[in-house]
Design goal:
This protein has 641 residues and is of the alpha/beta class. Helices cover 54% and strands 6% of the residues. The protein is built from 29 helices and 7 strands. The chain has helices at 2-8, 12-22, 26-37, 87-91, 108-118, 129-143, 158-168, 185-192, 204-215, 239-265, 272-275, 280-287, 295-305, 311-325, 341-357, 365-374, 380-387, 399-411, 417-422, 429-443, 451-460, 491-512, 515-530, 535-547, 552-564, 567-581, 592-606, 610-623, 635-638; strands at 46-48, 62-67, 122-126, 148-153, 171-176, 223-230, 233-238. Strands 1-5-4-2-3-7-6 form a 7-stranded mixed beta sheet, with helices on both faces. Helix 7 (158-168) links the parallel strand 4 and strand 5 (171-176). Helix 6 packs parallel to helix 7 (158-168), helix 15 (341-357) crosses helix 16 (365-374) and helix 16 (365-374) runs parallel beside helix 18. The longest helix is centred in the middle third of the chain and has 27 residues, at 239-265.
Length: 641
């Protein structure tokens, strides 16, 4: 533990722990360090309770946490891995087994999460030490939000985690993973930033013990399997509260139907808007969640409004409708056509305030989907605020951003055009594709990612010249970190230079392959993006490598295959990526040569080839000082000490 703490003192998390926990509560923290040092962590489970505290979870102030690395890799978790999300918990119900994706059916995260929510505990998917500090430990010590907990994590992390638990006033149980967990600080550090290529496991006996502890928790309220997500944590909803809501809604619907029947019987003409006894709030709620998107209507919208768009963009719009429609994150244009005028007005006013005054985040997504269907000009300022959100040098969630851009497409506003032009080369694929779609819908043109061409055409139509700042190449395609040792080179210059290198490399493909070949290359590559580590992905990448050996995407494919395999196969794929495709890039600015060296160096460290690993790390520092990972972090900063 002392080695872990010493290392952490030189990292941001260590200072934040001192500032938020240790400094304000020195006595508690000192006692926590001493108590954690004396714990016996050699068994399959460690109980951490004061002598006077009952060994049970407090259902109103309890939390259950599991590591993100429990999420499956083959087939890949549909929510992604290094995040706090769970598709199974967020969109599905345990009774709907036929709709559950195969990766979710035997996932410990979903199984433990459902049981935790049923017994009344909050549920948390743990990622980084920093997130745990701010999501769990700080609320526990500052607000008393959590007093008991059950956590499953790497054995290497047990003692440092126990310090945080005890210092913040949380008592409970710690369960170490049985397989695939981090065993040293270097491996833990990579996992802490989301690099964990091996799935961890909880052995069956431990998982059974966890489920029994949760099932035996004494609880007074009756909980169901529904919940609400606040920030990064899932919280259960009371079953009695849910039943009352359903019963109340049912009675109102019955009353409404009786009124309609009586009105018809008496020959009274009553409109839907005037006869309904359902309050505006209930009507809006019902209208906000259509069962699913009508794809025929989506196709009509594309044929009508995106007729001049490139076929790639037309297909992209349809893909968005198909992919996000089932979860309510995309609505048909006429989704609210039957909404009473007064209800519609209230909802527009609400959304205008929500989008203009709220902080950026995924909690806006449902409202953004509604705004796209409501298409009221009063929503324009809020949509532009969300669409224009940007954090330089920091990885952030782009879903609210591109959803706002998609909603702006339906606005067809002159005011939004400069902002949309600035986003046509954004590093996030959904964002730049929707910016192109929105501009094509508005203007009937498609100049792809050529900002200057867009600006020139827009001004030629008699519009005001677009600000030069908006026409600069988008910083490092996503959020390019400023390169180290760049001398007088500015971040803008570095960004422009990188974009130019990316452009030139893809231009080489156009000289070698036909347009039809390029479409096939991209289609094969996207199979891997959508079905990571699946048999289909490996088959598609193998075909890509064999048939198109000179394509830039082939370099990305080799690196993907290196990440998907182990042992000698991993080494061979990564070596080939380095030797033949070091000048290739992913669309977000990650350079294949640098990233392949990073993965190969970490592989060599794991198998004891320290000299080879050191040589590769030195190459990254010397030859690729400005190279980043997919989160925009400099690789040179991620090299283990």
């Amino acid at each position: 533990m002392w080695k872990f703490c010493l290392h952490s003192l030189f990292r941001k998390y260590g200072w934040q722990f001192i500032g938020r926990i240790a400094a304000p509560h020195p006595v508690k923290t000192t006692r926590a360090v001493l108590d954690a040092s004396s714990l016996d962590l050699s068994g399959d489970m460690t109980a951490i309770f004061h002598k006077t505290h009952p060994r049970s979870l407090n259902d109103t102030k309890s939390i259950v946490g599991v590591g993100f690395c429990l999420k499956p890799i083959n087939p890949l978790c549909p929510s992604g891995r290094a995040n706090h999300d769970c598709l199974y918990l967020e969109r599905l119900r345990p009774s709907e087994m036929s709709k559950i994706p195969p990766p979710c059916r035997r996932c410990a995260v979903g199984e433990i999460g459902i049981m935790a929510l049923k017994m009344g505990a909050a549920f948390y998917i743990m990622t980084s030490a920093r997130d745990i500090l701010f999501d769990v430990f700080t609320p526990a010590i500052d607000e008393g939000r959590f007093s008991s907990g059950l956590f499953a994590l790497c054995r290497y992390s047990l003692r440092p985690f126990a310090v945080g638990m005890l210092a913040s006033g949380i008592q409970g149980w710690l369960f170490p993973f049985g397989k695939g967990d981090c065993r040293d600080y270097k491996t833990w550090l990579l996992a802490d930033i989301g690099i964990k290529d091996e799935q961890t496991e909880i052995i069956e006996s431990k998982q059974k013990m966890i489920m029994e502890l949760l099932a035996n928790t004494q609880k007074k309220p009756a909980y169901g399997d529904q919940f609400e997500k606040q920030g990064n944590i899932f919280y259960p909803l009371l079953k009695t509260k849910l039943l009352r809501k359903k019963e109340k809604r049912k009675m109102k619907m019955i009353t409404s139907h009786i009124v309609v029947v009586l009105a018809v019987s008496l020959g009274i003409g009553i409109s839907t808007a005037s006869c309904s006894t359902v309050p505006a709030k209930e009507s809006v709620q019902a209208s906000r969640s259509p069962a699913s998107v009508d794809m025929k209507e989506a196709e009509v919208e594309v044929e009508k409004h995106y007729v001049k768009a490139h076929p790639e963009i037309r297909e992209f719009v349809l893909l968005t409708a198909k992919t996000f429609g089932q979860g309510g994150m995309w609505l048909n244009e006429d989704a609210f056509v039957a909404l009473p005028a007064n209800v519609r007005e209230e909802r527009i006013k609400y959304l205008a305030i929500l989008l203009e005054e709220s902080e950026y985040g995924r909690h806006l997504c449902a409202g953004l989907a509604e705004a796209g269907a409501l298409k009221d000009k009063r929503l324009l300022p809020g949509l532009m605020k969300v669409a224009g959100y940007q954090k330089d040098n920091v990885n952030y969630d782009c879903r609210p951003k591109w959803m706002a851009v998609a909603a702006l497409a339906r606005q067809e506003s002159d005011e939004a055009v400069p902002l949309l032009v600035s986003l046509v080369d954004h590093g996030n694929e959904n964002t730049h594709n929707w910016a192109r779609a929105a501009l094509s819908r508005k203007t009937g043109q498609d100049f792809k990612q050529d900002k200057q061409a867009w600006a020139k055409w827009w001004q030629a139509q008699g519009n005001k010249q677009i600000d030069d700042q908006l026409l600069k190449p988008f910083a490092k395609l996503e959020q390019l970190a400023p390169p180290k040792n760049a001398g007088s080179k500015t971040k803008d210059n570095a960004s422009t230079a990188l974009q130019e290198r990316v452009r030139k490399r893809f231009e080489q493909d156009r000289a070698v392959y036909s347009r039809d070949d390029l479409r096939k290359i991209e289609a094969l590559y996207q199979v891997a993006n959508k079905k990571w580590n699946s048999p289909e992905a490996k088959e598609a990448l193998t075909e890509l490598i064999e048939k198109y050996p000179k394509a830039a995407r082939t370099g990305c494919a080799l690196l993907y295959m290196g990440q998907m395999h182990s042992g000698e196969e991993r080494e061979n794929y990564l070596k080939r990526a380095i030797s033949d495709f070091s000048d290739c890039f992913y669309g977000d600015g990650v350079q294949v040569g640098a990233y392949a060296r990073f993965y190969l160096a970490n592989y060599y460290q794991q198998i004891g080839k320290k000299d080879e690993a050191s040589a590769l790390f030195e190459e990254i520092r010397k030859d690729y000082p400005d190279s980043v990972n997919h989160k925009g972090r400099l690789l040179s900063d991620l090299i283990p000490e």
